[in-house]
Amino acid sequence: MIDFIKDNLILDDPLILGANISILLTVIGIVFVLTYFKKWKWLWSEWITTVDHKKIGIMYILAALVMLFRGGVDALLMRAQLTVPNNAFLTSDKYNEIFTTHGTIMIIFMAMPFLIGLMNVVVPLQIGARDVAFPYLNSLSFWSFMFGAILFNISFVFGGSPDAGWTNYAPLAIEGSPGPGINYYLLGLQISGIGTLLTGINLIVTIIKMRAPGMTLLRMPMFTWTTLVTAFIIVFAFPILTVTLALMTFDRSFGTHFFTLTGGGNTMLWSNLFWMWGHPEVYIVVLPAFGIFSEVISTFARKTLFGYKSMIISLVGISLLSFLVWVHHFFTMGGSAAINNIFSITTMAIAIPTGIKIFNWLGTLYKSRIQYTTAMLWAVAFIPTFVIGGVTGVMLGMAAADFQYHNSYFLVAHFHYTLIAGVVFACFSGLVYWYPKMFGHKLNERLGKWAFWFFAIGFNVCFLPQFLLGFSGMPRRVYTYVPEDGWTLLNVISSIGALGMGIGFVFIVYNIYYSFRYAKRETTGDSWDGRTLEWATTTAIPPHYNFAVIPEVKSLDTFWFNKQETGKKEKVEYKEIHMPNNAGTPFIMSALMFVAGFGLVFDLWWMAILGGLGIIACMVIRSLRSHKEDEGFHVSVEEIKKTEQSFHEEA
Ligand code: HEM
Ligand SMILES: [Cu+2]
C-alpha cells in the first residue's frame, strides 16, 4: 500500500508539488472551518443530501466555477509556454498533459455543469413546477458528476494526467500512453457521463409532464425550449460515449482490440464513435447558451422575443443536423471525396438555422430601448463575436479548404470563438441574471462591467491573432517553435489577451465576495422586471416548494402580461404541498462509483469489485425502500401562510 502511494504520488515536479501542498492545505482548512463552526451536520442535511433542484443547481455552478479556475490555470500555463520561442517553462510531455486536461475539463466539467446548474435552478421555476420530475435522481446526477470530476482531477497529483488530447485518439491513447492517465480520462468521463444521461432523462420528463396549467409547448420560455432540445440530444448522444469509453477500457485493461490495428481492431472506429457523440456534445453546450441569451435579450430589450416560432424550428433543425456532421472532424483522414462532400454540405447547412437565430436576436433588439446591464453586455457582445466563430466554422466545413486549416491555430481560434463567445459568455450572463433568484441579492454591476470589459477585450486580443497564426502555419498542440517561424509577435499578443481574461475572472470571483458582503438584499422576487415565471415567486429566493400556489399561464411571457393587468388581486387559497425527502444514498452511491473507478484506473480488482458490489447494494436498498418508507412529507397550510407572510412583511 505504502509502495503504491509512493510510486504514484508525484513529488518531483515543482508545479505539481505546489498543487499537492495547496490541495492538502485547502482540505485541512475546510475541515477545520467546518469543525470549528460546527457545520458538518448543516453540510450533510442542507446540501449533501438535498434533493431541492435550486440547491443542486447552485452546487453544479460552484463546481463549474472551480473547474473554470483549474482549466483557466491550465490555459495560462500553456500561453506562458508559447509566449516566446524556444521556451523551456513546460516540457513537451507536460504540455501534452495540460492541453488534454484543459480541453476535457473545460467542456465536460466546466461548460456542461455550469449550464446544467442553471437549468436546474431555472427550468422548474420557468414552467411553474415544484421541482424536477425525479428529485432523487437529480441528486444522483449531481454527485456522479462531482465524483467523476474529482476522479479526473486527482490524476494531476496521483499517477499522472491523461495526455492524448481531449479527443483521446487511438492508438495513441492505448499503445502510446501506458500510465494510468488515460484510465483516469476513461473512468472520470464514464462516471460523470452517467450523471449527464440521467439529467437528460429527468429534464425531458420534467418539461413534458410538469408544466403549469395553460403552458402549452408554444408558451414555453426559450430557455426551457433549449433545455428540452438539449436534453433530447443528451439522451441520444451520451449512450454512444458510454459504450465508446467502455470499449477503450476493455482495450486498455482487458487486452481486447477494438481500436488497435494489431489484433484486427480499427483505430478509425474510435474517431467515428468519439465524434458521433462529440459533435452533438458541442450543441449540448451551445443550445442552452442560445436560450440564456434569448431570455436576457428579451428582458433587457423589453420585448417579446422576435420570431419565437422560427427560433424553435431552427433549434430543432440544429439538433437533428448535429448528428449528421461528425465526419467534418477528420476530413483529412482519407475518406472518399463523396463522403467528404456529403458531410461538407450537412455542416454548412447548420449555418442556416443558426443564421435565423442571429437575425431573431437582432430583430428583438431593433428599435428597442436597451438596458445595458452586465447580463445584457455579455449578450450583446455575444452576437458579433459568435458570428466570427460561426463564419470560420463554415470555412472549416469546406472539406477541400480544411486540408489547409486542419490542426492549425485557425481551428483553435475557431472553436474558442464558439465555446467562449457562445458558451462562457452565456454562463456569465446567466449567472448575473439569475443570481438574485439563487442568493437573494444582485451582483455588483460596476464590478460586473469591469469583469466584462477585461474578459471580452482580452478574449479577442487572445484569439484573433490565432487565426493569423493558423494562416502562417502554426499547428495546434505544439509546445514550442523557433524564432525563424515568425510567430513570436502574434503569440505575445495572444498571451497578453489571455492575461486580460484571467483578470476578468478575478473580478467575477471578487464580485461574488463583494456582493455577498455589501449588496442590498432583494425584497421581491422580480429583480429585473422579468417576463417569465421564475420571477413570479413572491420571495427573492423561492422557498423549497417554489410556488405557494401553482400559477396559471395565459400566454407567452405570461408574467409580463399579468403585471400589465394592474390592481386585480385574486384571493389565493393555499393547499397542503407534498415534497420529497432528502436522501443520502445518491452521495454514497456516487462515492462508491468513485471507489470502483479508482480501482479500475489502477487495475486494483478487489477495489473495483467492492465498489461495484456497493453500488448494487445501494440500488437494492433504494428499490426496497422507495415504496414503503420514502413517502416524502407534507408542508402544512399554516407553514405556507407563515412563510409567505413573513416575506410579504419584509417587502
Ligand atoms: C480562458 C481562456 C482560454 C484560453 C487562454 C485557452 C487557451 C487554449 C490553448 C493555449 C490551447 C492549446 C492549443 C494547442 O496547443 O493546441 C487550448 C485548447 C483547447 N481549449 Fe482552450 N482556452 C481557454 C478557454 C477554453 C474554454 C472555455 C473551452 C471550452 C469550453 C476551451 C476548450 C479547449 C479545447 C477543447 C482545446 C483542445 C484541447 C486539445 O487539443 O485536446 N478552452 N485552449
Ligand atoms: Cu463538429
Question: Please, could you describe this protein's structure?
Answer:
The protein contains 22 helices and 2 strands. It is mainly α. Strands 1-2 form a two-stranded antiparallel sheet. Helix 6 packs parallel to helix 20. The model has no long low-confidence stretch (mean pLDDT 94). Copper (II) ion (CU) binds next to helix 10. Residues 279, 282, 325, 328-329 line the site of copper (II) ion.
Class per helix and strand makeup = mainly alpha
How far apart are the first and last residues' alpha carbons, in Å?
60 Å
DSSP helix fraction: 55-70%
Q: Major beta sheet, specifics?
A: 2 strands, antiparallel
Question: Any idea what the radius of gyration is?
Answer: 25 Å
Along the chain, the helix and strand elements come as HHHHHHHHHHHHHHHHHHHEHHEH
Low-confidence stretches: none
Strand order, main sheet: write it out: 1-2
- Which outline best applies? globular
Average pLDDT metric: 94
Q: Which ligands accompany this protein?
A: protoporphyrin IX containing FE, copper (II) ion
Helical segment count: 22
What labels would you give this structure?
single chain; 651 residues; mainly alpha; two-stranded antiparallel ribbon; 22 helices; 1% strand; binds protoporphyrin IX containing FE; binds copper (II) ion
Helix-strand layout with pairing:
Layout: H1 2-8, H2 14-36, H3 40-48, H4 53-82, H5 92-126, H6 135-154, H7 172-175, H8 181-209, H9 222-254, H10 267-301, H11 308-321, H12 337-349, H13 351-365, H14 374-397, H15 399-405, H16 409-439, H17 445-471, H18 488-518, H19 558-564, E1 577-579, H20 585-601, H21 605-626, E2 633-635, H22 637-650
Antiparallel strand pairs: 1-2
Helix pairs in contact: 4-5, 4-6, 4-18, 5-8, 5-10, 5-16, 6-8, 6-20, 8-9, 8-20, 9-10, 9-11, 10-14, 10-16, 11-13, 13-14, 14-16, 14-17, 16-17, 17-18, 20-21
The protein binds protoporphyrin IX containing FE and copper (II) ion.
